[in-house]
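DM between two lab members

TW: hey, do you still have the aldehyde dehydrogenase (NAD(+)) entry open?
JB: yeah, one sec
JB: this one, 475 aa:
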Amino acid sequence: MLEKREFYINGQWVSPAVANDFAVIDPSTEEQCAVISLGGQADTDAAVNAARAAFDGWSQTPREERVALIRKLSEVYEARKSEMADAISLEMGAPVDLSRNQQVGAGSWHIGGFLKAFETFEFDRDFNATEKTLLEPIGVCALITPWNWPMNQIILKAIPAIAVGCTVVLKPSEIAPLSGLLFAEFMDEAGFPPGVFNMLNGDGPGVGSQLSCHPEVDMVSFTGSTRAGIAISKAAADTLKRVSLELGGKGANVIFEDAHPKAAKAGAIRCFRNSGQSCNAPTRMLVHKSRYDEAVEMAADVATNTHVGPASEEGKHIGPVVSEAQFNKIQGLIEKGMSEARLVAGGLGRPDGLNRGYYVKPTVFADVTNDMTIAQEEIFGPVLSIIPFETEEEAISIANDTPYGLTNYIQTEDDDKRRRVARRLRSGMVETNGQGFAQGSPFGGYKQSGNGREGGVYGLEEFLEVKAVSGWAAE
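TW: and the structure you got?
JB:
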């Protein structure tokens, strides 16, 4: 069993002020795989104070020095990517192939995207002949990250913040902390100055709340549930710090009559990816009535033929969900769905042959209406709800009838319709016809899916203040 009780503060690995052991559970086996310590107020203060002390110096370093260190980090990340893949598989159950190619790969992708965006980024901008607009680092940033795509989220926050001259305190998920601890090792190996990057473990009510209301923290960037995002916003309000939130989603995948023949199949596969543990998953499939029966059959076939197994197995299967709490929540919502809609695949309990581990059957419900619980609540598991529609207007209305607004999807061969509907969907992202987003594309949502954007230029700007200066002499 791994013992990982230390925190990374001010360039050193340090013991917690007060020991507070916390078991890390392998979701594939339900066995303890590691022990960490949860931090307390003294640890939070130490990390924040280190970041504060380092800020003045780091914020004034030439951008070339910051870029050089990020490039070094990228080299370390690449050299040790197999370690990272193993850590992610162990802590949150991503199958090894998914962990290597997508979980770890997402981190590499975003580092490259930020470096590319940073090459031409302008911190000093001419407003007119006599006035300058300066973009300056906001200060000390608390980064609170989730367990479902750990490297994706850590790198989307840490790299842009540090690149623009901020200093940071990272609190990864205590449920899946091993990747965050390993990332701290990478930062240390890359040679960032003491205090620029700090990492401590803790839970939401403890370290998460302490960071959110800390008077020396200038900004909180959080990814997680809408419930937690609201709590963080309230905690941060007394100090009026900036809060950037990437929260839940209930994405609609609108399949029109003229969509690709395999659109429903692709949508179901996408819904079940990462065991459904993605905020941008297309969990509501809206299908034109002329294609509805076909789509239900196709999605049910995908669910039936999606293999579920341990994270340690090679292959394209899906693994367990992350924890007992998540497993129980998903089972409760599946049970609720069985009382509301027509179950066509999956259902309650573990898949056959899996008696231990937090495994969920890929599940499909048909004849769903958008007022049902399973259509409104973010389930965060491999559960798909299929809803029929007749007209374009009805599809738009159903898609927008949700508290969330992260990612919606459109499938149609009619380009005018595709663009027209994309403009009317109330979400931060709209993916059309399976075309993925480019490197550096802004990631974020409307409504209760949060505020702010991550990735590329938009991600860099998130960690900057804007200063107007008059009377700037010509250079």
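TW: got it. The radius of gyration is 23 Å. The chain has a mean pLDDT of 97.
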